[in-house]
Design a protein that fits this description.
- It is a single chain.
- The protein is mainly α.
- It is about 40% helix and about 10% strand.
- The chain has two helices and two strands.
- It has a two-stranded antiparallel ribbon.
- It starts with 9 loop residues before the first strand and ends in a 12-residue tail after the last helix.
Length: about 70
């Protein structure tokens, strides 16, 4: 399982009066969170994607080590 992490994913806000406005893509954030949980619970270092996934997580973290799907 190869992790794909995306920051600042946006989608069209269906509830806004301006139909072109954007909002954070909560569905994508939930899918990414579920992928991270599966990685934590199921992946092992013997998996071929394990090292790449760890690198993706490290690169996704902020400098202080925090983890957010939105930029500061």
């Amino acid at each position: 399982m190869k992790l794909e992490l995306h920051r600042d994913a946006m989608t069209t806000n269906a509830y806004a009066s301006d139909q072109g406005s954007l909002a954070p893509d909560i569905d994508l954030m939930n899918k990414q969170t579920a992928s991270l949980i599966r990685f934590r619970d199921e992946e092992t270092p013997s998996n071929t994607d394990w090292r790449d996934n760890i690198q993706a997580i490290v690169e996704f973290q902020h400098e202080d080590g925090s983890f957010s799907f939105q930029s500061d």
